[in-house]
Amino acid sequence: MEGILAIWQRDVKKFFRDRARLFGSFTMPILFLLIFGGGMSGTMENLIGGGMTGGGDFHYVQFVFPGIVAMTLLMTSVFSSLSIIEDKDFGYMKEILVSPISRVNIAIGKMLGASTVAFLQGVMMFLLIPFLGISYNITSLLQVLPFMFLLACALSSVGLLIASFLTSTQGFQLIVQVLVMPMVFLSGALFPVSNMPAWMDVIVKINPVTYGVDVMKKVMIDVENLTPAVREAMGLNLSIFGREITVFEEVLFMLSFTTILVLLATLSFRRSNA
């Protein structure tokens, strides 16, 4: 535990000392929030706004905001793993690999460091809620926090695995840039992903962001106040083989996904030190 804590603490401090990186990780999510929230809100609200029961109004920004938070988690989690390659360049990674700390603990410490940074930035996105003209129940915001951290862990494990195989920051950034946008657009973060071609639907179902976004929307949005037609139109009925997936199953998938990728990264660390 001391080894995990030391690695976690170092990565968190290192990130918050880099103000340019801290600011840059907010740029893309806020840009998407302005584009999709401001540019598409009128069209989407006119199309499905009348589907709410009880005379309520549908706010597209309220629908897309959990997806923007998930995008923040994705970008920060994955790009935080760039520190692994930087540690390889400066020799720090070699030092901890030859230390008594087990490879599993090294991988867990790195994953938790990136996850914590991403989680804190995701929470900071909540500060924008009053300025967006939307509102969420404070209880819902508190309930969504554990799911946000779990999603951050799953996404950090992706960056961890990629970084464990690479020695070049340029190669890491290239691979991550190719992965990030498809993971965002094929997750339901910004628009529904229902009725897609079969091959694309497979990608949607194996994408960890899909399940994280779905859980966050179910917790943050009052889905019980939406008609079945609206829930279907907005992709809130995520299903596999015609059966709707439960929140428990989505959490189980993210836990399994994280565990598998951390173990694979551990094997990669062992190979690199062989």
From TrEMBL:
Keyword Transmembrane helix belongs to the record: yes
GO molecular function list: ABC-type transporter activity
Domain (ABC transmembrane type-2) ranges: 20-272
Q: Keyword Repressor, does the record have it? A: no
Transmembrane stretches in the record are 20-40, 60-85, 106-132, 144-167, 174-193, 251-269
Q: Which family does it belong to?
A: Belongs to the ABC-2 integral membrane protein family.
Protein name as it appears in the record: Transport permease protein
Which species is the source of this protein?
Salibacterium salarium
Q: Species lineage, top-down?
A: Bacteria, Bacillati, Bacillota, Bacilli, Bacillales
